[in-house]
C-alpha cells in the first residue's frame, strides 16, 4: 500500500508510554478531566502522537462538560470516522469517538483522548494579537496618519 504509514509495533511500544499505546493502538479510554489537553486554550495545532500528522487547529476546539478534548472539525482529510470511532487517516491509530451533537457550524462532536495528541504551539510572531495589542497598533496607526496630515 503506497502512501500508508507502516508502523512496527515493537518500535512503537518502545517509543510511547504504556497508557499512550493503550489508547492509540488498543482503542482504550481515558478518565475524564485527567488528560493533558482537555482545558488547554493556547494557539497552535494538535498532531497525532504516532505519526505527527496535523489533525486539528486550536480554533476548532470547544469545551464540553465531558472532560475530554472536543473539536467541531479537523483539517481536511486528516481524520476518518468508522462506526463512530475517530481515527488518524495516515496511521489508523485510535483518537477517540465522533458524534453528530456538536456546536455550529458543523454539528460534529469529535471527542479526542489527550494521550493520542501532541500539541504544537504557534510561534509568538505568528499568533494573532490580543485585543489590547490590536488597540495599541490601531492607536499608533491613527497617530501616524494624524501626523502626516499636519
What does this structure look like?
There is one protein chain. This protein has 150 residues and is an alpha+beta fold. It has one domain: Metal Binding Protein, Guanine Nucleotide Exchange Factor, Chain A (Beta Complex), CATH 2.170.150. It is built from 3 helices and 9 strands, in the order H-H-E-E-E-E-E-E-E-E-E-H. The radius of gyration is 20 Å and the shape is elongated. The protein starts with 8 loop residues before the first helix and ends with a helix. The relative contact order is 0.18.
> What is the quaternary state of this protein?
single chain
Number of strands: 9
What low-confidence regions span 5 or more consecutive residues with pLDDT below 50? none
Strand order of the largest sheet: 3-4-8-7-6-5
Provide a count of the helices.
3
- Which value, in Å, is the CA radius of gyration? 20 Å
Instruction: Give the averaged pLDDT, no decimals.
Output: 86
Q: Quickly name the level 1 CATH class.
A: Mainly Beta
Q: Which fold name fills CATH's third level, the topology?
A: Metal Binding Protein, Guanine Nucleotide Exchange Factor, Chain A
Indicate the overall shape. Answer: elongated
Order of helices and strands: HHEEEEEEEEEH
Sheet with most strands: 6 strands, antiparallel
Structural class: alpha+beta
Strand content is: 15-25%
Distance between termini? 69 Å
Protein name: peptide-methionine (R)-S-oxide reductase
Family: Belongs to the MsrB Met sulfoxide reductase family.
GO molecular function: peptide-methionine (R)-S-oxide reductase activity
Organism: Stentor coeruleus
